Amino acid sequence: MSDTEERRGGLVGYVLLLPAGAWLTLFFVVPLVTLVSTSFYDPAGSLELGYRVTGQVTNYASVLSDYSEQFLRSLGYAATATLVCVLLGYPLAYAIAFKAGRWRNLMLVAVIAPFFTSFLIRTLSWQLILADQGWVVDTLQFLHLLGEDGRLLATPVAVVTGITYNFLPFMVLPLYASLEKIDPRLIEAGSDLYASPFTTFRTVTLPLSLPGLVAGTLLTFIPAAGDYINAQLLGNTRTQMIGNVIQKLFDGGSYPEAAALSVTLMAVIVVLVLAYVRRAGTEDLV
Amino acid sequence: MARRPHHPGGDTAVDRLARQVAQELGGAPGFSRRSFLRASGFGALVLGSGGLLAACGTEGTQQSADSCTSEDLSDSEKKLIFSNWPLYMDEKGKRYPTLEDFQSETGIDVTYNTDVNGNNEFFAKVRNQLGACEPIDRDLMVLTDWMAARMVGLGWLQELDTDAMPNVSANLVESLRSPDWDPDRKHSVPWQSGLTGIAYNSKFTGKVSSFEELLTRGDLKGKVSLLNEMGDTMSFLLTMTGADPSDFSDDEWGAALERMEEAVASGQIRQFTGNDYTRPLNNGDVLACEAWSGDIIALQYDNPDIEFVVPEEGMVLWSDNMLVPNKAAHKANAEKLMDYYYEPEVAARLAAWVNYICPVQGAEEAMAEVDDSLVGNPLIFPTEEDLAGTFTFMSTDTKTREGFEKDFNRVIGA
Q1: Which CATH number is A66-285's, of 3.40.50.920, 2.40.50.140, 1.20.950.20, 1.10.3720.10?
Q2: Test the A interface: residue of B7, B225, B271 with most A CBs within 10 Å
Q3: Which regions of chain B carry the CATH code 3.40.190.10?
Q4: B23, B53, B84, B244: most buried, per Cβ within 10 A?
Q5: pLDDT digit string, tens, across residues A217-227
Q6: In this complex, which of B41, B127, B283 lies closest to A28 when CB atoms are compared?
Q7: Assigned CATH for B79-187+324-342
Q8: pTM (two decimals)
Q9: Counting Cβ atoms within 10 Å, is residue A139 exposed (0-12), middle (13-18) or buried (19+)?
Q10: Terminal alpha carbon distance of chain B
Q11: Confidence label for B27 from pLDDT (cuts 50, 70 and 90)
Q12: CB-defined contacts A:B, below 8 A
C-alpha cells in the first residue's frame, strides 16, 4: 500500500513539474539549441542564400581574436564591481541585521526601493549626476580631485560605478538573509570565551555568513559580466563590454558571430562559477 | 516588495533568498543575465524558422513576384496599418492632424504605429516572416535607402501602381526620382529626406567647420560624438581619405577604417550614438557631433546656441522611404495615403513639424500659409545647388553590407 502511495506521489511530482518544464523547454532549451547551432553556421552563407551548418569553429576563432579585449574588460569590470559591492554591501547588511533595531524593515525597503523605478531610468539619471557640467564634477574640480578638463561621465569609473549601483541590492539581500539567521548567542559566546570582537567576527560571523557572500557575489558577478546598458549609457568607445559587442553584431546581422560570442560568454561564466563555488566549498548552494 | 514576515520560522535562508531574488529579477526586466539570455534566446529562436529546423541551417530567403503573391483586400476593408519612426508625423497633443484629415477624407481607418526604431532592428523583427512569404501585419513601413534597397533586392516588397498615385508622379522632386536601387520608383516612395552634417554648441565652443577638425581639434578631445549609423559616418571618413563614398575599393575602405581607428584610439571621440546625441549636445557634455539636420532644427527651438554646419567635406543625403511589404492586404489604401502626402499643402504641414527635407515640389509655396519662417530654409527646401555637394553611401548586397558593419563595429570598439 505504501508502495502505491509513493508511486502516486511520484506521479504528482512529475505532473507538477510539467507546466514549468514545458515552459523552459519551449523558451530556454529550444532557443539554446538554436543559439548553439547558429554559432556553427558556415560564415560563407548569407541571408539571401541561407546558412549551412558545416561544423566549423571559424566563428569562434574570429570573435575571440577580434573581441578578446572586450571580453577581458567585461570580466574585469564585473569583478571590480563585485568587489566594491562586497565592501559596501557587507557593512550595510551587517548593520541592518544586527544594529538597525526597529529601523530594520525601513532600511530593507530602502535597499529595494530603487527597483520601483526602471533600470534604464536609474542608469540614465547617473548621466545627469556625472555630467561634465554637473555639480559633482564641479565640486571635485574645486577640490582639485579632478583635473580642469577631467570628467567622470564616459569613463571606466562611471561604468563600474553604474554596475556597482545597479547590482548592490543583489549583494545586500543574500548577505542580510544569512547574517540575520545567525544566533546572537553564538556571538555572545565568543566574547564570553575572551575572543576579541574581531576574532569573533572572523571565526563566527564571517564563516556563518559565507553562503550569503557566495550567493551575493554570484548574483552580482554573473549579470554584471553580461551587462551592456551601463557601458552603453555611461561609457565611451574604449569601455565597451562584451554585451555591447553581441548586441552590435546582432543588430548588424552577423548572427553566427553574435551566437558564438554568446555561447563563449556562457561557457566562460559557467566555468568560472563552478571553480569559485568549488573553492568556496558550498556546492549545496548551486 | 511583499511584506516580509518578522519571524520567518522554518524557512531556510536559501529559501528566502531565492524568493527575494526571484522577486527582484521579476521586477526589473531587461536587467538580469537571465533575461539577457532569454532575450538572445528569443533572437536565436527568430533566426531559425522554427526551433530545431535551424539545427540544419537556414533556407534562402529570396522572394520574387512569382514566388510570393499578395492579395489586395482594400476594396472591402477600409483600413491601413502604418509603421513609422517616432516623431516623424505632425503631432498636436496626442493627435496626428494630417493623418486624421486623411482618414476623414477617405474613410480609411489608419492604425499608426511608431515601432521603427532602427533599420537593423526592424529588419530583425520582420525578416523571418518576409523571408518565408508570410504577412507581417503591416501595410506600409518607412525605412532608409540602404535598407529599402536590401528589401528590394530580397524581393520582399510589392510593386506599386504609379497610376494610382498622380500626385507622386507629378510632385516628387527631381533629385529623388531614380535612385540606383529603384530606378523607376516602382517599390518605394520617399517619406522625408535628410542631411547628415555637424552640429556644435556655440555656448561652449567655437565653430567646427569640418570633419577633420571634429576628429583632431585638441579642445574637443573627449567631447565629440559620432553616429553609429555606419553608412553616414563612414561616408565622411571615406571622403576625408580621398575616396568616393558611393563607389570605393577595398583598399580605400581599409584606409578609411584605419583613419577611424586612429580617431578612436586618440580618445577624441566620446561616444557613438543613435538618436540620443541631442541631450548631451544640449547640456554641453558633447561640444560638437555628427548630426541629422531635422533633429538640430528641432533642438534649435529650445536652445538657440546649437548650430548646424555644412562640413567642408560635404554632407550625407539620405531618404526614408514608404514601402509596401509582401502579403500586405491593403496596398491600394497605402497608395492612397502615399498620394495624399504628396499634396503640397499636406506635405508643407508635415514638413513644418518634422523639419526634414520635404521631397514634394510645390510644398515650399504652400509653406507660406503654414509657417512663413521656414520658407527658404535650406535644410528643409534645399536647392539643387545645395544638394550638389552631398553624397550617399554605396548600396551593396546584404553580405557585403554585413562585412562593412562588422568592420565598423570592430573599429568603434564594439
Answers
A1: 1.10.3720.10
A2: B271
A3: 79-187+324-342, 194-317+398-411
A4: B84
A5: 999 999 999 99
A6: B41
A7: 3.40.190.10
A8: 0.80
A9: exposed
A10: 37
A11: very low
A12: 217
